[in-house]
Structure formats: C-alpha cells, structure tokens
Amino acid sequence: MHARHLRARLKGWGGVGAMAAACALAVVFALAVTCTGSVASQAGAQPAGHRTAKALTVDARAADDCEAPEKQTLSPSRADGPAITAIRNRPGEKRKLVVGVDQNSFRWGYRDPNGGESGRLEGFDIDLVHRIAEDILGDPDAVQFKAIPTDQRIPAIQDGRVDLVVRTMTINCSRLKDVAFSAPYFKTGQQVLAPKSSPIEGYDETLAHRKVCTAKGSTAYAKLEEDRRSGDLPASTDISTTVPNQLDCLVRLQLGEVDAVVNDGALAASQAAQDPTVELKGEAFTTEYYGVAMKKDADDLVRRVNQILVDFRQDTATGWQASYTKWLSATLDDDPSASRPPAPEYLRRS
Fold first, then answer.
1. Rounded to whole angstroms, how far apart are CA atoms 117 and 50?
2. What are the pLDDT digits (tens) for 23-68?
3. Which tens digits make up the pLDDT trace of 268-308?
4. By the 8 A CB rule, do 308 and 131 touch?
5. In this predicted model, which residue has the larger pLDDT, 9 or 207?
6. How far is CA 129 from CA 27, 101, 137, 178, 211, in A?
C-alpha cells in the first residue's frame, strides 16, 4: 500500500439515535417530491453565433487534458445571458430556480424529522441553493427542489430537469465531459466508514475479503475500481455492492449486508453522527472538491454562480463560515480550514 494518505481533521462522532425516523421520512418525502416537467433548454435559447470556436465552455477536449479539474471553470461575472434570462422569464409560479438536491444526507440536504409539518429541506447545500436563488431571482425561496439519486445527477442536468445540481458533487475530469462546474465550494476526501467493533483499520489491507458499499456513479466506486486494478486495494475486496443513494449504504451496513462503506469523509462523518455504532476508519485517501453542476452550454449561469460563491465565501455574517458553523462543525472539525477550498482559479482566455 502506498503511503498516500492525506491528513483529515474529522473527529469522533456523537450519535443522535434518529436513524430509523430519518430513513422513514426520507422514503416518504422521496415519494412526495415530483420530478415531472422540464427546464427550458438553455442551448436552444441561445442566438445563432452566440458561441464561437474560442468559447470558454469546458468541453470534452478540456476534460481530457485536465489535471486539476477544480480549475476548469469560468471566471465570475454578474452579467446576464440566455441561461439566466430563460430562468427569469418563466411565467407565474414557475418562475423558480429548479435545483437537484439530496434530501437524506444529514446536515447537507435533509428533512429534519423534528422540523414540524413543513418538512423544509435544510443543510449546508440547501443554504447555498437559497443564496443562488436570492441573487438570480431576488427571493431565496424562489426554488423548486427536486430530490435526485446520486446516479441521476448528470442525467437530470443533461435532460433539462434541473438548472443546477447542488448535491455534494465532486468535480472531476470525467464529469467535465458531460456537465460544467462552478469553482469549488468545499474540500473533502474519500474515507472508510465501518462499525466501531470492526477490525477494519482504514483504506488498506484490512479491507481484504470484505464487502464494501458505494453509491452508483460516485467517485468512491471509481476509485475502488481503479485501485483494485492497480493493486493498491486487495484483489479480494468485494466492491460489487452499489446503491442509488449514499445513505442506502449506511442502511446496508446497519443490516450487516456489507462490512464497510467508502464515501466522501464529509458525508461519512454525518452518517456516523446518525448512528453511534459506526465510525470513520483511518484517514482520507483522496482530495476532492464539491462544485455546483450545470449544463455545459450555460456559460452565463456558470459565471454567475462563481460570482455568488465569491460573495458567499467573503460574507462572514451569513455566508460560508456561518453555514459551516451551523451545520457541519458538530460533525467535522471546529476549525473549517481543512474543508474550505483554496482560492479559486479560472480558465484563461486563449
């Protein structure tokens, strides 16, 4: 095993003992959230000749060449364009930002079982969604949330079902072939989650002959598959169990159907907070960045979101720091520096 482990600042977890209720509510609301309708195609709204051969939209060629995917985004701008105009021109009650989110990731995007009858979505990602809606439409609540599984994030964007996906989505080169990303808004890394009583020690030889669960279409599964081929993961590790949503892996773990879960450390920490019988094992073994995902041709929307992220990071009263303190400091390090992404870098004009 190569000594590639990155230091993570995730600490011990206290349990809230509400897993069963949270899972039950997640199922109920998953049935309640509709996914009908579609977002007007922004590509079709662009005038002829709007895009040129030198357009800065991230394309497949850029993704093939990228070594730092978190830098493959457009510079911030407040200028309106066809994508934003299409959102603002929606009639009446449909004049909302349509956003793909999670509704069962504790403290990221979830419905608090003690939150009353409203069932309002809450969490770090949800705070960011409200901030984007306020900037573009002047109303933080002008949002239509659509709960989408992990493996449906990219199809939902490509099919026009959503304008954005804000769902703990890692920026990587492969995904840049299909969607555009904002600058990073959060830093994390893959980590192992297992029962406290388990002999598993981390992402190492102790995973031999163990069954590991990951979300379908996740960077965790891609990493396990790659490392098993290269020999960095024991060949006997069973990685065949994949599920539509990350939380489903925790349920499989609780039922004893798998021995461990590999997931983003930031998400795994929240899952550990839901169940005091499990814990993170070892340190993070990758470095990854979450970004807001959009259609590849929605250049003006990408730029606008990047400007919103600049403001969100700089706003000490109600911005990134305040949201981190409210939602994540209890499960992650009190010092958010390990999770705050570096100063963003953008594509340069050629």
1. 47
2. 333 433 343 433 334 443 343 334 333 333 334 444 444 445 678 9
3. 999 999 899 999 999 999 999 999 999 999 999 999 999 99
4. yes
5. 207
6. 22, 9, 12, 22, 36
- Count helices and strands in the chain by DSSP H and E runs: 11, 15
- Return the amino acid letter for 40: A
**CB-based contact 97:144 (threshold 8 Å):** yes
Q: Which residue has the tokens 């977002």?
A: 39
Q: Where are the alpha helices (DSSP H) in 147-242?
A: 153-158, 219-230
Instruction: Say which residue the tokens 């081929």 belong to.
Output: 229
Could you tell me if 279 and 269 are in contact, meaning their C-beta atoms sit under 8 angstroms apart? no
86-91 LR contacts (CB < 8 Å, sep 24+): 86/40, 86/42, 86/45, 87/136, 87/137, 87/163, 87/301, 88/136, 88/137, 90/40
Cα angle: 239, vertex 20, 145; to 5 degrees: 80
List the structure tokens of 323.
């949201």
**Rounded to two decimals, what is the model's pTM?**
0.81
CA angle (305, 171, 321) in 5-degree steps: 55
Here the tokens at position 181 are: 């990303």
Question: Which letter does DSSP use for residue 318 in this model?
Answer: T
Instruction: Give, in order, the Cα–Cα distances in Å from 130 to each of 13, 153, 216, 318.
Output: 28, 19, 28, 12
